[in-house]
Every structure is written in C-alpha cells, then in structure tokens.
Amino acid sequence: MKVFLLEDDDAIGMGLKYSLEKEGYEVTHVKTAKEAKESFKTNEYDISILDINLPDGSGYDICKFLKESEDIPVIFLTAADAEVNVVMGLELGADDYICKPFRVNELMARIKSVLRRVGKGDKKDNNEASNIEKLGNLNIYTNEAKVTIVDETSGREESIELTALEYRLLLTFCNNRGVVLTRNQLLSDMWDISGDFVNDNTLTVYIKRLRDKIEKDPSDPKIIKTVRGMGYIVDK
C-alpha cells in the first residue's frame, strides 16, 4: 500500500515515515507543494496525507489538484482545529483530518478506516466475512453498516438499530481502540445528516443512547468507558 506524505516539518515527517513503514506501508515523503505536484505526475498512490500549512502554498491546493486528476483518499494534518479549517477541507473532498498533536496509533486507525471505506483495505481485511469488526460482544459489519450483539450463553446474534450518528460514533470508538478520545475530538468528527456540527450537550445524549443499546449495564459501561477529566476510551 503506497502512502504519499506531504509534511514540511522534518521531525514530524521523518517520524511518520518511519512509523508508517514499520506498519508495512511504502511511503513517499515530500515537503513542498511543488514537490507534491511533481511526484504525482510520475507516481500513483493509494492514500495521501497532507499538511495544510506549507512553505510554498497550502495542502488545500494540493487536495484540489489531486481530486481533479484522480479520486485518491486524502487525510489532512492540521495544527489548527478551527471549524472553518475542518469545513474547508471536507468541502474540497477530504476523507478525514487529524489535528496536531496526535498519537501515531490514532493516525494509523484513521488511515485503515479511510482505506476500508474506499475499498482499498488490505487482503486480510477484504477476505474477512463482511468486513467484521469485533468490539466486546458486538459484531460490526462495516460493509452493511449493521451492528449485532452476541448473546454470551447461546452465541445468537441480535441486530441493534442505530441511527446514522450513533453508528458513526461507534465506528469512531472502534477505529481508535486504546486511545483516549476527548469530547472536542469526538465533536470535531460528528455532524448530523444536515451537515450541522453536533454540540456538546447533544454528544452527551448520543453517548448515553449508544450505551443504552450496546452495554449490558449502561450505568456501569464495559465497552465505552469514561476517563474522568479527559474523555472516553474503548480498549476491548
């Protein structure tokens, strides 16, 4: 799997290149918009990771350039988590974004999630029946956007009806196992069907509703755990 990395900070770029190559990705790292455009003239990539602030331009310009020539998945790296930056990136066709500073395993999870969504997951993922993600006693069938809960005694599966936002929230937790997600991180990734961003009070309601549907005892959650003063974590 070939990854294109556009990051002008040497330390961040070298660190990400090393981490991605350890995961088995083939990485091309460039530091300027000019180098990016030249590289795409002679190479093909499966996914691109773009820094926004560049010495000779903007990651937005490169995203627009890529989307006009080929529909390659794009993840933005940004030091600014302002809503306007997020909206601009998504309007240009970005598939995801992550705010600096971030944990490497969080970025890896985002990359895998985007590749699965666009049908470029690795062979192991594609050969699994219906692309099943297991989370505790939950089975998440990502190809069908279906979630079931498995009875611990009989092994029987029962479907759970989730709203689109509840399902998106569950996938966000699933793709970031072992990572504490702050409320701000969750809020930045959540928007309703009209494209409106979810506010803090609404997020609380959705987490409660999700727990009511997937937890055996919602008052003592074992899947989505609260980390006091920080956020939430799924470590199953």
Descriptive account of the structure:
With 236 residues, this protein is α/β, with parallel strands linked by helices. The chain has 2 domains: 2-117, 3-Layer(aba) Sandwich (Rossmann fold); 128-233, Winged helix-like DNA-binding domain superfamily/Winged helix DNA-binding domain (Arc Repressor Mutant, subunit A, Orthogonal Bundle), CATH 1.10.10. The protein has 9 helices and 13 strands. The strands form 4 sheets. The protein has a 5-stranded parallel β-sheet, with helices on both faces. β4 (53-54) and β5 (57-58) form a beta hairpin. The longest helix has 15 residues, at 200-214. The chain is elongated, with a radius of gyration of 19 Å.
Within CATH, the superfamily of the largest domain carries the name Response regulator
Number of helices: 9
Instruction: Report the sheet-strand fraction.
Output: 15-25%
The quaternary state of the protein chains shown equals single chain
- Number of DSSP E strands: 13
Task: Identify the overall geometry.
Answer: elongated
How are the secondary structure elements laid out?
Layout: E1 2-6, H1 10-22, E2 26-30, H2 33-42, E3 47-51, E4 53-54, E5 57-58, H3 59-69, E6 74-78, H4 83-91, E7 96-99, H5 104-117, H6 123-127, E8 132-135, E9 138-141, E10 146-150, E11 157-160, H7 164-174, H8 183-188, H9 200-214, E12 225-227, E13 231-233
Parallel strand pairs: 1-2, 1-3, 3-6, 6-7
Antiparallel strand pairs: 4-5, 8-9, 9-10, 10-11, 12-13
Keywords:
elongated; 22% strand; 13 strands; Rossmann fold; 236 residues; alpha/beta
